[in-house]
Structure formats: structure tokens, C-alpha cells
Design goal:
Elements (H helix, E strand, L loop, with lengths): L11 E6 L7 H22 L10 E7 L1 H12 L7 E5 L12 E8 H11 L3 H16 L7 H17 L13
């Protein structure tokens, strides 16, 4: 599915449900396309991110805690579930030209539901945040060092606010 191209670059989204109860997958796929389009617009406009002429592909994999725990254990040496995992197809530094395949974003349903409840946020809003977060990892953004974390969080916040969603690192109401 091509994400909307109202202005700026678009993405070719491939969605796969591998495990877990994700409800209305068609609605989730449409929302993920909107979120990714907003993220691409933001990177192009605010971070001078170049994009190829053809829409790059992103794979969004929907799973459960058990599946994500196994992947997290195998690839990151952390035998526990996590909310989102990102696997870039190619190493990319922020501002670098992406190839035709950006990579995979993998979500864990139970962890997302638990976190959304703890944060007092709708599950759909938390999913949108995690898609943005995972997408930025595909572009080489990270949050290991404080300066990098601040930059990544600022971009996430800006994208989510553009979608009329709350700042995940600040207030709980849409700005």
C-alpha cells in the first residue's frame, strides 16, 4: 500500500499480521500509512532528508510478546518482549539516501496495550508513536547518547503533533 502523497515523498507499506489480536487490520494499515507519510514529510521538510524517486518500502510486522521476545533474544541478546523492534535493510546515517527497502518495524501487541494503559493513552495513539519511533530507527536515528535521544524525541514529538496526537515525552493532551 502506498502511503498518501498529498505533499512530499511516500512510502510503500507492506503489513503482515504474524501473531496477536490486532482487530481491524485494514484500519490499522490505513493509519500506519498516514503516520509514515507524515513522518516522511517531516524528515524531508525539517531534516533535509533525501528520498529516492520511487517510494521506499517499509515492512510493518504485527506480533505478540512471545514472538517479539524470541526475536529480541536472538538479535539483541535480550530475552524479553519490547514494544517495537526496527531492523534497517541497510545501515543508514541520518540524512543519508535510503535504498528501495528501508527495513522492518515489528510491534508487540500485549506490551503496547500494557504501556498504553500505564500511560493513560489510547492504544492506537501509542501504536502511532511506536511506528514513528521505529521508522526513525530505520533512518539511523538512535537514543543511546543523550544528545541523540533529545534529537530523536524532538522529531517524534513534532511528527505526532502534526497528526494531532499528544507529545509522548511531555503533556498528555494534543497540542
Amino acid at each position: 500500500m502506498n502511503a498518501p502523497t498529498s505533499a512530499g515523498p511516500s512510502v510503500d507499506l507492506g503489513l503482515s499480521v504474524e501473531a496477536g489480536d490486532w482487530g481491524d487490520v485494514a484500519r490499522l494499515e490505513a493509519r500506519a500509512g498516514e503516520v509514515l507519510a507524515a513522518a516522511m514529510r517531516d524528515l524531508a521538510e525539517n531534516e533535509a532528508q533525501p528520498f529516492p524517486a520511487d517510494p521506499p518500502e517499509v515492512s510493518l510486522v504485527l506480533g505478540n510478546d512471545e514472538m517479539v521476545k524470541a526475536i529480541n533474544s536472538e538479535w539483541r541478546g535480550q530475552p524479553k518482549p519490547t514494544n517495537v523492534l526496527s531492523f534497517p535493510a541497510f545501515e543508514l546515517a541520518p540524512g543519508g539516501m535510503p535504498g528501495p527497502m528501508l527495513g522492518d518495524i515489528i510491534l508487540a501487541r500485549e506490551t503496547i496495550e500494557r504501556e498504553a494503559s500505564e500511560l493513560g493513552k489510547p492504544v492506537d495513539e501509542h501504536i502511532a508513536h511506536l511506528i514513528v519511533h521505529g521508522f526513525l530507527h530505520l533512518f539511523g536515528y538512535d537514543h543511546i547518547e543523550n544528545d541523540d535521544a533529545e534529537k530523536m524525541e524532538a522529531i517524534e514529538t513534532r511528527i505526532l503533533i502534526s497528526l494531532d496526537l499528544s507529545d509522548p515525552y511531555g503533556c498528555s493532551e494534543p497540542v
